Amino acid sequence: MESSPPPPSDPSPTAPTPAPPGARAFALARRPGLWLVPGVLCGLVALLLSLLYMGGILNPSDNLTDLPIALVDEDRGAPPPGQRENLGKQITDAVAASEATAKTVEWRRLDRAAADDALASGKVFGALVVPPGFTASVTALTTAKATRRPVLTVLTNPGVGSLGSSFASQINQKAARQASLALGERLSAGATAPTARLLLADPVEVVTEPGHPIGGHSGLGLSAFYYTLLLVLSGFIGGNLVHTGVDTALGYADSEIGPWHTRHRTVPISRTQTFLLKALMTAGISVLTTSLVMVATVALLGMDAPHLPLLWVFSFCATLAVGLGVQAINAAFGGIGQLVSMFVFIALALPSSGATVPLEATPGFYRFLGAFEPMRQLSEGVRAILYFDARADAGLARAWISIGLGCVAALAFGFGMTHYYDRRGLRRLTPQPEA
Description:
- It is a multi-pass membrane protein.
- The chain crosses the membrane at residues 34-54, 275-303, 309-332, 339-359, 399-421.
- It comes from Streptomyces termitum.
- This protein has 15 helices and seven strands.
- With 435 residues, the chain is α/β, with parallel strands linked by helices.
- It has two domains: 60-210, abc type-2 transporter like fold; 219-253 and 264-423, no CATH class.
- The protein is elongated, with a radius of gyration of 33 Å.
């Protein structure tokens, strides 16, 4: 008996076709809403940073306004025959009345002692000095008594920054050269010998000297700016790290390092108490960062830094003021707080600090920002300690006042906003970890 063939087996279910690599990511990338917020924010940040940074440095010569320069007349000689004033008075009057520098320079007519004091406190960017006996030495050129060329002295002030000191030096050298040519035109008019006319055409020697020298390990006057930048970055980055670390440890933010993701159980705590905790931790960590900044810059790299105890105290207070400001802004604005604080302490502060390009050579908008932006005040304090013997009138007093006001304002703003949120019942989300 023949056996019947076995019944056909049921066809197996069709296996799903695997999605091509990246399909999910490309599908999500086609959603316009996913691009909107980061695209708008990144575009605005790029545009504003470009305008702020480049707008302050592209045309410093064209924007130069009221650069303070000392004008010193030490000539006490008798006027030349037929003239009412000696040559020192004539030269300084002509320089001060020059239309070429009427808007760009604020000439400060000082005696030598006052000019040296202004240079030593950073109140002037340089000085043009007519030395004693100038009239007599010029008059002697037309006689057999001449022993050397008359001299006009240009004093620089590298402590105010290399660019600002260079501006003042160029202006002073040009003014001295014009004075020499004007004198030469008068002197050579009475000379008959071609050789004498050639020598008298430009009779004055212009000598450039440092009016207030700084140390050789001062970055040509830029160490104050970069040291201030270190303090601001330490406060800014440290404040944001404390903010993120505390929120992660208390369970209000997730932690993700590489492929490892953790979420802690939420600790019940009010916004006000959280801000207090972050402020205390910012103060404690500022001690560490300040000490390490000084170890790196002074001990390891050899930066010229007198008044070390004062520099440490000032550095700690400056770092703390910035860190508290960051905490207050983050507490008030939440997720976009880091972006807001970046503009307050970095984006707006750097071009208005006046430490690389003097504010007198920037557009009016930056001079307005420099009146209250923290980096301007801090850089003047650091500069006073590093270059100007920690003189209060060199900007240190203003810096201390600004630090004090900044700390008070940060604490008042931070506690005010968090207390307001707590009273309104605007508590933070408290997601619990999964079982």
